[in-house]
Structure formats: C-alpha cells, structure tokens
Specification:
The chain has eight helices and no strands. The chain has about 170 residues and is mostly helical. The chain folds into two domains: about 90 residues, Rna Polymerase Sigma Factor, Chain: A (Orthogonal Bundle), CATH 1.10.1740; about 70 residues, Arc Repressor Mutant, subunit A, CATH 1.10.10.10. α2 packs across α4. About 5% of the residues have low confidence.
Length: about 170
C-alpha cells in the first residue's frame, strides 16, 4: 500500500495528524494548480485554505481512496470558481497557461497559441500535458465522459496544428 493511500485511510478514520501529513505532501500540487487558475497570491492562499478545509470536512465521504488526488483537484477547481465568481469575474481558463518566469520564445509562442483556444479545449490539454493527469482522471475532474475528453484533446491538437500552419 502506498504511503498516500495509507494516509488517506487513516484520515478517513479521523486521524488529523495523517490528514496534515497528506496535505503537506499535496501542497505543491495544489499550489501549482491554483496558480494556474488564479491571478494573485491572496486568492491562491484563500483557495488553498478553503480546499484543505473542505477536504478535511468531507474526507469521510470519499468513496474510493485511490481517487483522492482527483477528488482533491475537483475541490480546488470548485473553490477557484467560487473565488473568481465572488470577485465578479468569470473564470478565464486561459490564465491556466500563464507562467511568470518564461524566457523561452518557443514556450511563449505555444502559450499564446494555447491561450487562443476555447477553454473547453485548453483545460483538458493543460491537465493532460502540463499536470500529467490521465484521460480518465481528467474525465472525473471535469465531470465529463472519457470520450468527450479524448475528442477535446484531439480537436485541441488539431487546432494548434492549424494555427502553426497559418503562422508560417
């Protein structure tokens, strides 16, 4: 049994120390995801705090322990949406692609191309290629069928190829 799975089981049983260890292990993942959705550090901190509180309150409702990361990411996405809606803005998933310290011209060009995609294509693309989630995990995070995710990934790649041809 993996360490994370062990900590999830202990957390579900009410062990707060195990939950703290689990959150410390997931802190970097959560921060990086929140940074891609939110623009300022205060919103990111609020989102992380709300995500951890929600996870703590609801961990006993987690049905399958092995899907803890997917469940946690869904909570983070929902909290990101709440923060953005509270700020009277709509969630611009294109902000996912904002990287502050990029010096590579190629990566800037790719980012600009990805920003031009509709969010229904860019979000699965970012989750798959930037965050390394499987198609099934993306399906669960976005609450969409697996085939829809496959289609959107395929269409996103096709649209990026078309943009590259137009620019040449």
């Amino acid at each position: 049994m993996s360490k994370d799975l062990f900590l999830v089981k202990r957390s579900k049983a009410g062990n707060t120390d195990a939950f703290v260890q689990l959150m410390m292990a997931k802190e970097k993942l959560l921060y990086n995801m929140a940074r891609k959705f939110l623009n300022n550090e205060e919103d990111i901190a609020d989102c992380l705090q709300e995500t951890m509180i929600d996870a703590f309150k609801n961990i006993k409702n987690l049905r399958k322990d092995k899907y803890f990361d997917t469940w946690l990411c869904r909570i983070l996405i929902n909290n990101s949406n709440k923060i953005i809606n509270k700020n009277n803005r709509t969630l611009d998933y294109r902000a996912i692609l904002h990287e502050e310290n990029s010096s590579s011209i190629d990566s800037m060009e790719l980012r600009n191309q990805l920003l031009s995609l509709d969010s229904k294509y860019s979000v699965p693309l970012v989750l798959f290629y930037y965050n390394g989630y499987s198609i099934k995990e993306i399906s669960e995070i976005l609450d969409l069928p697996v085939n829809t995710i496959k289609t959107r990934l395929s269409r996103a790649k096709s649209r990026l190829k078309i943009q590259q041809i137009k620019e040449e």
